[in-house]
């Protein structure tokens, strides 16, 4: 078969950010300044980096960003009170609580406290349920980014067989729901599944999201498959740290028609789709904005 196509997540994310920047101008022309509130609890270095990246990207798009930092020892009541305040603030359109939270705070309770129309992570039960029903709701950013990459690469996904490896609430389950909405035939496999390589070989599309480095081998793929690798695993190889995906990239390239690299594939899309979700949230909260602008990245 011909050489594999590398799916450039950085370039795709740049296109999304350009779209968002243009859409922000439409909001501002209607007297609305889209705003995203990001809440960080504790001093986890990785979380601090993620928050800085999200805030910087929002500012690049023209989205107003608000940062709230709470100490790691703060009680859940203080965090919930802040969320209530942000829910009630009409000038705030999106609310994101950076995960993970300190162990003493109930993550589920916090996520369900965010108003569904401001839940730019798409984790509220109302949004999760709406996604499974095929409705236009705020959708988790990483699977939404994966869908965008697939549509950019494959065009119409109707009738394609997709295998999703992993059943997490953050990626696997919403990814399956998005692919179903795009009219794919979807198989979800996980740690209890049997005959995993054989099931993968049936797939036109493979989405790997399990957090196991190089789990998916090249001989698991049928010729011409499109592979989306969500995994980001840090390995120490020869005394040097290296990021690898859930797919054995080198062997997969001998069979796949297109594949996302790690890094540089899915990762950049997550923050880009967060910006897109912030505008979708603002559009849900205001009827004066041009409705011809697409609210979500979910195909009809």
TrEMBL record:
EC number: 1.5.1.5, 3.5.4.9
Binding positions for NADP(+) per the UniProt entry: 166-168, 232
Pathway: One-carbon metabolism; tetrahydrofolate interconversion
Keywords: Amino-acid biosynthesis, Histidine biosynthesis, Hydrolase, Methionine biosynthesis, Multifunctional enzyme, NADP, One-carbon metabolism, Oxidoreductase, Purine biosynthesis
Domain Tetrahydrofolate dehydrogenase/cyclohydrolase NAD(P)-binding: 140-285
SUPFAM superfamilies documented for this protein: Aminoacid dehydrogenase-like, N-terminal domain, NAD(P)-binding Rossmann-fold domains
Residues passing through the membrane, by range: none
This protein's record includes keyword Hydrolase: yes
CDD domains: NAD_bind_m-THF_DH_Cyclohyd
Sequence ranges assigned to domain Tetrahydrofolate dehydrogenase/cyclohydrolase catalytic in this UniProt record: 7-121
Entry's family note: Belongs to the tetrahydrofolate dehydrogenase/cyclohydrolase family.
Protein name: Bifunctional protein FolD
Organism this protein belongs to: Pseudomonas taiwanensis
Gene: folD
């Amino acid at each position: 078969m011909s050489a594999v196509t590398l799916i450039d997540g950085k370039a795709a994310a740049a296109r999304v950010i350009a779209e968002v920047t243009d859409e922000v101008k439409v909001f501002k022309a209607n007297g609305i300044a889209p705003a995203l509130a990001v809440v960080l609890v504790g001093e986890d270095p990785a979380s601090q980096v993620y928050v800085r990246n999200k805030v910087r990207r929002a500012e690049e798009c023209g989205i107003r960003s608000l940062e709230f930092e709470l100490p790691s020892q703060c009680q859940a009541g203080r965090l919930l009170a802040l969320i209530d305040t942000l829910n009630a603030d009409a000038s705030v359109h999106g609310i994101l609580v950076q995960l993970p939270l300190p162990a003493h705070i109930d993550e589920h309770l916090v996520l369900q406290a965010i108003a569904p129309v401001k839940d730019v992570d798409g984790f509220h039960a109302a949004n999760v349920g709406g996604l499974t029903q095929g409705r236009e709701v705020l959708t988790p950013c990483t699977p939404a980014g994966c869908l965008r990459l697939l549509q950019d690469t494959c065009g119409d996904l109707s009738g394609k067989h997709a295998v999703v490896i992993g059943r997490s609430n953050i990626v696997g389950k919403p990814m399956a729901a998005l692919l179903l909405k795009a009219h794919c035939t979807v198989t979800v496999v996980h740690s209890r599944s049997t005959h995993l390589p054989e099931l993968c070989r049936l797939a036109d599309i493979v989405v790997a999201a399990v957090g196991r480095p190089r789990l998916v081998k090249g001989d698991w793929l049928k010729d011409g498959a499109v592979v989306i690798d969500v995994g980001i695993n840090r390995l120490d190889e020869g005394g040097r740290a290296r990021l690898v995906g859930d797919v054995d990239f080198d062997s997969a390239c001998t069979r796949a028609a297109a594949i996302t690299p790690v890094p540089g594939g899915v990762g950049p899309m997550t923050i880009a789709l967060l910006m897109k979700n912030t505008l979708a949230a603002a559009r849900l909260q205001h009827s004066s904005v041009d409705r011809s602008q697409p609210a979500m990245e979910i195909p009809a």
